[in-house]
Amino acid sequence: MTHRIAVIPGDGIGKEVMPEGLRALEAAAARFGIDLALEPFDFASCDYYLEHGQMLPDDWFETLKDHDAIFYGAVGWPEMVPDHISLWGSLLQFRRRFDQYVNLRPCKLLPGVKSPLAGREPGDIDFYVVRENTEGEYSSVGGRMFEGTEREVVIQETVMTRTGVDRVLKYAYELAASRPRKQLTSATKSNGIAITMPWWDERVKAVGERYPEVSVQAFHIDILAANFVMHPDWFDVVVASNLFGDILSDLGPACTGTIGVAPSANINPDGSFPSLFEPVHGSAPDIAGRGIANPIGQVWSAAMMLEHLGHPDAGRAIVDAFEAVLSEGDPAVLTPDVGGQGTTETLGRAIAARIAG
Amino acid sequence: MTHRIAVIPGDGIGKEVMPEGLRALEAAAARFGIDLALEPFDFASCDYYLEHGQMLPDDWFETLKDHDAIFYGAVGWPEMVPDHISLWGSLLQFRRRFDQYVNLRPCKLLPGVKSPLAGREPGDIDFYVVRENTEGEYSSVGGRMFEGTEREVVIQETVMTRTGVDRVLKYAYELAASRPRKQLTSATKSNGIAITMPWWDERVKAVGERYPEVSVQAFHIDILAANFVMHPDWFDVVVASNLFGDILSDLGPACTGTIGVAPSANINPDGSFPSLFEPVHGSAPDIAGRGIANPIGQVWSAAMMLEHLGHPDAGRAIVDAFEAVLSEGDPAVLTPDVGGQGTTETLGRAIAARIAG
Ligand SMILES: CC(C)[C@H](C(=O)O)[C@@H](O)C(=O)O
Ligand SMILES: CC(C)[C@H](C(=O)O)[C@@H](O)C(=O)O
C-alpha cells in the first residue's frame, strides 16, 4: 500500500527545512519498508500568490482531497502579502475544508535543548496541547460599521458548536485515557468570557462522564498560561479552544526551549480527508535564505505523520534519531539556535544518517 | 484636601491582605501628610451575594461614584457562587460603569523574589502591560441556540469601538513616550482573528502617527506569549485588548515570579469616576483562612493608588519599603511563598514599619 503525500514547502525557511524533513522521511521509509509517493506543490505560498493573485488554484480541493496526508513547511511573508490573506487563503482553508479538527502539539523537554526555565531536566516536562482547529474564535463572521468615522464599531463572532466542541473533547479525553497519568486540563475563561466559556465548561463535564478514569481540572487561560511557566510538570493533556490552544501551543514549546523545533499535527481523526503536518515555527523572514534554520520541527512533523499513517515504529525511530543527535551535541552538526555552527543541511543529514541506522 | 477611598476586601485572602494594605497606606499617609478618608464596604463579595442574592446593592453606583478611588481585595468563591456571576456582578461592573478603561500592570523582577526563568537578575525585566478594560472580547452580546440538542450553537461577539481602542492606545503611547526606552509592543492576532485584529493593527498605526518618538512593534499573541518567556527583557510597554491583556498580565508576573505579589490599577484617566486598585491574585480559596497570603500585591496596589491620587513620592516610598524588606530576606518576616515562615501580618507590619521610616 502506497501512502500519497502532498508536499508543500510554502514560504521562507519552509523551503529550507522541507528537504531535510523529506530526507528523514525517506530514510525512515527505506528502513521500515514503507511505500511513499511524494508529490510536490508550489501553491499555498506567497510566491504563488504574487504570480496568480490567489494563494491556491481553483481546483485545490480536488487536487489534494485524496492524498493520505499533507506535509507542509511554513506559510507567510508579511512584507509582500498581509498575513490574514496568506493564512486564510491556505493553512486555515486546509484545516477547515479538510475538517482537521484536532491540532495536536507535543511540549517536551528534549536532551541538549536549553529551556528558559530554571532547574528543569529532560523528563520533567512532557505534555500535549490538543487544540480545536476549525471554529471558535477563528470565525469569518463579523464586520465593520460606521467605517472611517469616530463611531466606528468592529465586531467578530466566536462561534462554537456542540458537534465541534464535543468531538475535540472526545479526542482529548481518549488521549488522556491512553497515557499513564490520565490527566486532562481544560483551558477556560468562564469568569470573563461569560457566554461561550461557561458552556465550554459544561461540555467538558458532559463528555467527561464517559471517561471516569480521566481526572479533569479547569484553569482560566490567564492563570493557565502562568502555570505553564511556574508548574509545567503539572500537565499531561491540555485541551483548549482554537485561540487558547494557539497561544498555549506556542507558550508550551517556548517553556521547553523548543519553539524552533516543535511539530504539529492537524488531524482529521476519521480519515475522511487528509491530515496535515507542519512545524510550529513560521516562515521566519528574519533568518530565511541563510541556510541556518533548525530542521527538527519539520523532521518531528514527519514522525507524527508516519505515526498517523500507521507506522508508530518509524515515527519513534525519527524521534530517537534527533534526540540522539541533540544529545551528542556536536557543534559542527547543530544549527546556531541549539548552540552549534552547522547548517540546516548538516543537521538534517546527521539525523537521516542516524535513522538509517 | 481629603481623598475619599472606598475599601472593599471582597472574598478569601482579599479579607486577609486588605488590613496590611491599609496599614501600608496609613503609614505612607502619616509620613507624607496625606489626608485619607477610608470607608469600608462589605458588598462585592460572595458573602454578600449569599445573603442578598446579588453581588451589589441597588444603589452601588450612587454610593461609590463620588469616591476618589476604590481599594479592592479579591473577589470570587467558585464553590459557592459561579465565577461568571460573582465577577460580572462586581469587578467587571466597576470597570465598565466607572469607565476604567485602562488596566495597568507592572511586570518587574524584584530583589529576593525567585523567578522561574533561568539567569535573570533584578533590573533585567521591567515593563508594563496596558490592557483595554471595558470592551473587546469581554462582551455581553451573544447566546445559545438549539440548546440541549446536537445542533447546539453558542455565539459570543467581540465588540471593539474606535473610541474604546483609540483611548487605550493613546494612554499606552503616552506611557511609552514617558519612559527612557520609548518602546511600544502591540499584541495582535491579525493572521487568525482576521476581522477585529487587522483593524486593531490599523488603529495602532493611526494613533501612533502622533507619537513619532515611540518605536512600535507588533507580535501575534501566540509568539508574544512565547517571547515573554524567552525574551522578557525585550519589553517596555505592551498594549493589548481585554482578553490578550488579561493573559499577558498574568503571564508577565509569572515570568518575574511575582504572580502572588503583582498589583493592578483599573484607571479612569479623565477622573470622571473613581479608579480601582487591586492585587492581580484572586481570592485563593486553597490558602484562604490560614493567614499566610502574601500582602505585597495589596500593598503595591496602595502605592499605585497614591501615585494616581497625585502622591508619587508616597507611592515610591511604599515600593522602596517592600523591596527593602524582600532584599533583607528575614525568614521570620516573609510569607512562605517567598521562602519564609512568617504570616500575612508579620510581612505587612515589617513593610509598614519601613514606610514609617
Ligand atoms: C476575575 C477575572 C474576571 C478578571 C479578568 O479576567 O479580567 C481577572 O482575571 C483579572 O485579570 O482581573
Ligand atoms: C499562522 C496562524 C494563522 C496559525 C494559527 O493561529 O493557527 C499559527 O499560529 C498556528 O498556530 O498554526
UniProtKB/TrEMBL annotation, chains A, B:
Its cofactor is Mg(2+); Mn(2+). The keyword Manganese applies. GO terms for molecular function: tartrate dehydrogenase activity. This is D-malate dehydrogenase (decarboxylating). Belongs to the isocitrate and isopropylmalate dehydrogenases family. It catalyses: (R)-malate + NAD(+) = pyruvate + CO2 + NADH. Its EC number is 1.1.1.83. Keywords: Manganese, Metal-binding, NAD, Oxidoreductase. The keyword Manganese applies. It comes from the Bacteria.
